[in-house]
């Protein structure tokens, strides 16, 4: 099977997020290319800031101060995020009041909302608000959109801080959709930015139903700050099946895992 460079890079990144590291020789054998080709791919990905080269392969980039910038994350796991977004949009019903927090998966959800009537949507994400504005103008759905004010986090294109939380405190919603940095049994639902975490936590507490969106790179990851314990989520939507050793705990707490197709 002959793969384009971009396809190889995507497969390399998927292996990297799944395993935490990749090795040149096994990856070359898996993809059916030379070790020199894999080394060039790794060098290119390092130049893009997506991994760190080490002897014999590569490891994840360190993001001590948070996750990669929003624009960089739009290039990762695109197909998985699109499937998750579409599946999540199927849970939205006419007349719903919903909250959409920040993240690239949430942008896919916003783009997938179609044919719904009389929605009320709250968000603190500028890209999500832009998608929703376009959808309203194109009459892909009807309703109202509230963009929460606050301090602009330009790199992540979000609005957070005390003003945002104060405004959010005036609302209750049927469903809160959370796009997260990590999801684990011990750490629960987590993210990297304290201010974004605070808003997402308030979304969750204001909602009757909490729906977590997490692609394969987030499963088993414990990010810096907890949003909510895993048992406080109602639904998890992912591009992969529920880990076998999680199933009993999730069933015990009534958390439904949906694998997007």
From TrEMBL:
Domain HTH deoR-type span(s) in chain numbering: 5-60
Thylakoid keyword on record: no
Keyword hit for Transcription regulation: yes
Pfam families named among the record's database cross-references: DeoRC, HTH_DeoR
Record InterPro entries: Carb_Metab_HTH_regulators, DeoR-like_C, DeoR_HTH, NagB/RpiA_transferase-like, Tscrpt_reg_HTH_DeoR_CS, WH-like_DNA-bd_sf, WH_DNA-bd_sf
UniProt KW keywords: DNA-binding, Transcription, Transcription regulation
PANTHER family registered for this protein in UniProt: AGA OPERON TRANSCRIPTIONAL REPRESSOR-RELATED, HTH-TYPE TRANSCRIPTIONAL REGULATOR SRLR-RELATED
Name of this chain's protein: Glucitol operon repressor
Source organism (scientific name): Paenibacillus konkukensis
């Amino acid at each position: 099977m002959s793969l384009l460079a971009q396809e190889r890079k995507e497969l390399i990144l998927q292996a990297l997020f799944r395993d935490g590291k990749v090795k040149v020789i096994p990856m070359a054998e898996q993809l059916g290319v030379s070790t020199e080709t894999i080394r060039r791919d790794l060098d290119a990905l390092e130049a893009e800031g997506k991994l760190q080269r080490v002897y014999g392969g590569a490891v994840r980039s360190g993001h001590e101060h948070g996750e990669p910038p929003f624009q960089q994350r739009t290039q990762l796991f695109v197909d998985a995020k699109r499937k998750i977004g579409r599946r999540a949009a199927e849970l939205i019903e006419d007349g719903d009041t919903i909250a959409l927090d920040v993240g690239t998966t949430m942008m896919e959800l916003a783009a997938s909302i179609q044919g719904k009537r009389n929605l009320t949507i709250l968000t603190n994400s500028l890209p999500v608000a832009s998608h929703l504005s376009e959808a309203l103008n194109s009459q892909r759905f009807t309703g109202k959109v509230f963009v929460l004010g606050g301090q602009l986090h330009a790199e992540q294109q979000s609005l957070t801080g005390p003003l945002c939380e104060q405004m959010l405190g005036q609302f209750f919603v049927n469903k809160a959709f959370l796009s997260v940095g990590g999801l684990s049994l011990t750490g629960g639902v987590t993210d990297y930015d304290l201010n974004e975490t605070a808003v997402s936590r308030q979304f969750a507490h204001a909602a009757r139903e909490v729906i977590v969106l997490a692609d394969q790179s987030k499963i088993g990851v414990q990010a810096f700050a907890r949003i909510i314990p895993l048992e406080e989520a109602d639904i998890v939507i992912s591009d992969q099946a529920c880990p076998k050793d999680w199933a009993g705990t999730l069933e015990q707490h009534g958390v439904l895992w949906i694998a997007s197709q």
